[in-house]
Fold this protein.
Amino acid sequence: MSTDLYRRIGRFLDDHRLSPDPSHYAFVHAILTDPNGGLARAAASLIDGGVRLHQDDIVRLGGGTPATRPEPVEPKVEAPPVRDHAVPTVDSQSDSLAAQTQGHVETFLAILRSVQADATAFGADLARSAAKMDRAEAIGLSALAALTGEMLERIHASERRLQQATAEADALREKLAEARATARRDPLTGLANRLAFNESLGQCFEAVDPCHLALCDIDRFKRINDEHGHAVGDRVLTAIGQILAEEGQGHLVCRHGGEEFAILMSGISKRDATALVERARQAVRERRLRVRETDQSIGQITISAGITTFRPEDTQETLFARADELLYRAKNDGRDLAYAD
């Protein structure tokens, strides 16, 4: 029975000019062993009239992997960035990781289906062998040795496939962790993005320890873009993000959008939170940045900030409204200031 099934699978693959990889094998195995199932009926409707199944058809039916997958793209902040061109987006990185993860999942499932098919065939063989031994005449020693050897070979083959499945599961776990991290990282600065920030913000609302929010905005950032170009502006954003991350080490520093950054501080007093933002503001003020290609000075760069402490009755809207108001006051009063409530 199992030999006949293997032959039928092989003929199907040959007829449709499909490569004998694990995902194709698992797909054909599924439709041949369950001819009345939904997958088999969907495949039958596609090949009605002698039409060959194509790789894309199998992918749409959920039984294969695309022939080509995009290579993972790493963010290149240090190279001269060009907005919307050199810097990969979160979506492109996530799509690439999702494609790789899907490939691992499909390979893993194909291996498991193959092991299951082998186990089923092995069980049938054992049942037939036991029936022979129960009949009137016992089989000879040579036949018993052959049967034992076949059993051992099947067991070893299953062990090898299970080892491969374990390796695929480990790779899948790593890719899922990588995908989760990438989805929460700003591709330009490498800082946390708004998704990661909102998750941590929710935890702060439930925390017992005091939490503080600082909104920091680069002063006159439009001037930098207008005078030096968006590529230099991107590098300035990256440099400021690094300064804030260094000064805010141990706390969540996020690029909140455009030239605005947010710092979420917990477990420290309001006074210490204000002092932390002040150190960051001074560090930005003292940093002298130059255009890498021309060595031209960009000029002094400053930030303004608004710092507020979480209150029991706060919502996200009221919290940000206070921080925004303090930031607006700092901008109105001459910039390069940090106000706390």
Summary: The chain has a mean pLDDT of 79. The radius of gyration is 31 Å. The longest strand covers residues 211-218. The chain is about 60% helix and 10% strand.
